[in-house]
């Protein structure tokens, strides 16, 4: 029986509250589905860790993350806690760079009971695959402001970076096994050379996946189509900043940040975290929606199953996913952000009960 080592970073703000819920759910699913075990390695990071230890991502946490089979990450950072130069505490970004987590996987799947803003209740189930390591974000800290008159940041698109993210998108589309798998390249190649290059590399890689349809949209048209007919999409692959924006649009379509999980994947490491931040307005009130964290655990279990060829974690993932679906539909897991009355505690208890 395989024991999976999970590095757990609880983070700041509502991070510890929702991660605690997701760990309760994980423990229950592990009891119900036998055939695998979990070892948790508590690994501090974030604003509170910075205040306590003088460092936001301690070396011991980084090495625990490197050694783990997967990393479960709560949101990090607090508005009032900053480095002396005024910048934010963002160990999650450091982790992304250190572990070369180049593929941001941001699913947008609508579940009954999580009200989205669109009329007609479209069956939304797409994934934004966001390139995490380059694009305009490659300029982080390196932009130039000239004479208080002009500012520049430079977009970086490399062949290697584009090939590997596009391969991730096509592999994911194959894995999702939709009736007509499709990957849509989202860019602004009509305006910028760097995006035209991204699209060219996309087209080259697409030839290696003749079983998956490949098409393109400019980002402005993609934003409109995602609102007009989101059900048409399967996998979208795009540059870092565009992916950042479109994945939040996706979260908005399925009920908001409280139900949006994510994964950041590299070739050797994988981080799973809710899309939301530390939500300082909700700290300690017991009302944070735990579903994004719980669904991140579902993604983590599926990833462990895939990478280790082990059906047991996938069975646990299905158990949790079904329990989330059932309790959302019944209203028991519907917190205030979804228009319901559940608290973090009662939503978690309902899901635990539904798992069995
Ligand atoms: P960050 O900059 O850290 O990503 P943000 O400024 O985007 O954070 P979040 O902390 O993600 O903001 O949250 C924005 C708002 O959304 C919160 O203030 C909160 O009201 C709501 N929110 C976020 N996550 C949740 C959640 N899990 N449950 C309920 N509401 C949430």
From TrEMBL:
Signal peptide: none annotated. GO terms for molecular function: 3-isopropylmalate dehydrogenase activity; metal ion binding. One of its GO terms (biological process) is L-leucine biosynthetic process. Pfam families: Iso_dh. Belongs to the isocitrate and isopropylmalate dehydrogenases family. LeuB type 1 subfamily. Its EC number is 1.1.1.85. Residues 5-351 form the Isopropylmalate dehydrogenase-like domain. This is 3-isopropylmalate dehydrogenase. Keywords: Amino-acid biosynthesis, Branched-chain amino acid biosynthesis, Leucine biosynthesis, Magnesium, Manganese, Metal-binding, NAD, Oxidoreductase. It comes from the Bacteria. The lineage of its organism: Bacteria, Pseudomonadati, Planctomycetota, Planctomycetia, Isosphaerales. Homodimer. InterPro entries: ICDH/IPMDH, IsoPropMal-DH-like_dom. It comes from Singulisphaera sp. Ch08. Its cofactor is Mg(2+); Mn(2+).
